[in-house]
Amino acid sequence: MRPGHPPDHPLDDLLRTDRIPSIWCPGCGIGTVFSACLRAIKQSKIDPKKIVMVSGIGCSGRASGYVKLDSFHTTHGRAIPFATGLKLARPDLTVIVFSGDGDLFAIGGNHFIHAARRNVDITVICVNNFNYGMTGGQVAPTTPNMAKTATTVYGNPETPFNLPLLAYASGATYVARWTMLHSRDITESINESLTKTGFSFIEVLVPCPTNYGRRNKEKPLDTLKKYQEKTIIKNAADLTQLDIDHEKGIVLGKFVDIDRPALGESYEKICRSDNME
Amino acid sequence: MKPAINTGEYFITGDVACAEGALAAGCRFFGGYPITPATEIAEHLSVRLPKVGGTFIQMEDEIAAMASVLGASWGGVKSMTATSGPGFSLMMENIGLGICTETPCVVVNVQRVGPSTGLPTQGAQGDMMQARWGSHGHYEIIVLAPSSPQEIFYQTIRAFNLSERYRLPVLIMTDEMVGHMSEKVIIPDPKKIKIISRCRPKGRKNRFKLYEPGPNLVAPMPAAGEGYNIHVTGLTHDTRGYPVINVETQKQMMDRLIGKIRKNLKDIIQTESYRLDDAEIAVVSYGISARTSFAAVDEARKRGIKAGLLRLITIWPFPEDKIMELANRVKGFVTVEINLGQIHQEVQRCIGGKAPAFLVGDAGGSAIPPDRVLEVLKEAF
Amino acid sequence: MKFWRVPLDADEIHVSKGIVYILEDRCKGCGYCIEFCPQQVLEFSSNFNKKGYHLPSVKKPDDCLNCHYCEIVCPEFAIYSVEVTGEGSGARNQEPEKHNETSDKYR
């Protein structure tokens, strides 16, 4: 704090302030999720030197460029295998993968399910804006049926993933879903994931005012009203009932929090120990 | 922990020799995927790596394998992967990421017949241009081509040393014949093996610039988790590592990426000259085809044809000066390779019309017999 | 604070008060802080910043309870509240910090 000046923003020490303001659109929710993540990093009390953020390509992927930690902006969809290699080489690091729904579940889908299966000790934060924002708002695996996007002008003929179910079915040991309004819950979930060993997955729903929202005639404040009024928190809900219904309601909460051996631990026990020859 | 370097004499395949060379060089991470004929490298390292303090992981595909190798390298660990044609094609985007982010690592391609699935169990040398230009964009890369299991052992160590010194992925382009042949390999005493590791940064951490070139034009490289707050991105970036989206930054970045290789050619390029001093015909070859060419040159000499062999060990950057120097004094060139003229084109380019150049090529699938080369040596000159 | 029935522990509970700081150059005028402040402390000001966004301004500085919701919902790290210790209240828009002026270079 400089005398005579007002106090700095409490997260400025984790931000590359020379690159703020960010490229995100006004009203974009990525910044809020990113901010919740930084708060979780502080609350976890883990040495920030040992925290690494890996991101993919897309609007959410730009987050790694703004955090003042070791950060890696990798190729489209490949943040998770990059993070796997990094974590295996350096088990002392805490690795966060911060990326978007398209990057993690379309091109990166295969890597997601395998990392969850292996229970690699990383925390994956998926900022879900229901489209490919950076490239202009094309359809994504999370786009609702009938929604309009740049490549589904007649309405989306496909149906989206149920991400928490997919994560759990693949083997994730921590699964939660929130919206950007539930900032303190996001922070708590990320904090729990950082300190927990195992593959953690947190999905956060956000508005995309410039693309998805505009094409579907939904102003950002309308989206947030929906997140305020049409969401219900049901921790430990039945994962098969978690499809997002934008009309009837969206279920949020911490759905899975279990323990099983993580990859590093089992590799150490099974492959490195001298008992196995 | 078991020793990484098992000094002794062995009768092993090229693939196993490559794996042993990697361990000798200090490689402690392998992220791979099985593919004939490179699978044995993965299998051997899956056994050896965990016992020497390293990590082996079989990823879900080659794309993930290459990404994991880059991640491990940024963790400060020497890492590699091994594949063949179809996997090599998949790895291209991430090889590009490795080049742009200046990440040291080694990628081995035990070439098989292409295109596409081709002949999985039979060798060829058809990926040589892909090794140079396989990823998008313009860049420089180092590619080595060993000719025997013993040489693979040493060239793998050299590949790691070059990748650490120049901070980029180095490709080893061998072929199924060398990969699967068994020959005597001597693994020397560790004291006789020279290992080079990446230059470490000095000075204040908060003043450190991730891509500011050092005296040899290469920037020192920290690892993640050391407090340097690095930002590594595949976007065009300045010396701080921050993405800067304009043409000036692109030009400066390209000058750095290309300059560090082109200004160090003497260190990077390696060739072997066999009976070239008084040669009238220069045979140019590499990999398994060089073995063919040695035999053909000897046979030709017996028949009074003054042939000599320029064996390329470093394929890229291409040894232009050597070809240009030979072009001034020999009557002709013969390129021998198991493809339909990929390196031959480069040889022709460097000759610049000063002498005729012939190709002994092959569609792929078996080694070229020395007789075919001898025929050309007899007929053409 | 006005109560319809004074709680029994009204003397013991300390209701926090806060000062809101707004970093003008970072704000993109999304309006989420204004919309979601539980005390309706903020409103759109008629000023705008260098980039042309309408900033929030503090309408009712005395009502800020330092709940930090504006701070945690803001996507741009542009607004935050700080607890008032002892006397004092009121809030003000932040003068642009020097480093914000150079941030245009890296856009």
Descriptive notes:
- The complex is a heterotrimer of chains A (277), B (381) and C (107).
- Chain A is built from nine helices and eight strands.
- Chain A has 277 residues and is an alpha/beta fold.
- Chain A has one domain: Thiamin diphosphate (ThDP)-binding fold, Pyr/PP domains (Rossmann fold, 3-Layer(aba) Sandwich), CATH 3.40.50.
- Chain A has an eight-stranded mixed beta sheet with strand order 2-1-3-4-6-5-8-7, sandwiched between helices.
- The longest helix of chain A is centred in the N-terminal third of the chain and has 15 residues, at 30-44.
- Chain B folds into two domains: 8-192, Rossmann fold (3-Layer(aba) Sandwich), CATH 3.40.50.970; 270-380, 3-Layer(aba) Sandwich (Rossmann fold).
- Chain B has helices spanning 14-25, 39-48, 62-74, 85-100, 128-133, 149-166, 176-180, 247-262, 265-268, 288-302, 320-327, 342-351, 370-380; strands at residues 8-13, 29-32, 55-58, 79-83, 105-113, 119-123, 142-144, 169-175, 182-187, 231-233, 271-274, 281-285, 307-312, 314-316, 332-336, 357-360.
- In chain B, strands 2, 3, 4, 5, 6, 7, 8 and 14 form an eight-stranded mixed beta sheet that branches. Chain B has a five-stranded mixed beta sheet with strand order 11-13-12-15-16, sandwiched between helices. A two-stranded antiparallel sheet of chain B has the order 1-9.
- In chain B, β4, α4 (85-100) and β5 form a beta-alpha-beta unit.
- In chain B, α3 (62-74) runs parallel beside α4 (85-100).
- Chain C has a domain at 24-95: Alpha-Beta Plaits (2-Layer Sandwich), CATH 3.30.70.
- In chain C, the strands form two sheets. In chain C, strands 4-1-5 form a three-stranded mixed beta sheet.
- In chain C, β2 (42-48) and β3 (54-58) form a beta hairpin.
- Chains in contact: A-B, A-C.
- The interface between A and C is medium-sized, with 35 and 31 residues.
- β2 (70-73) of chain A pairs parallel with β10 (231-233) of chain B.
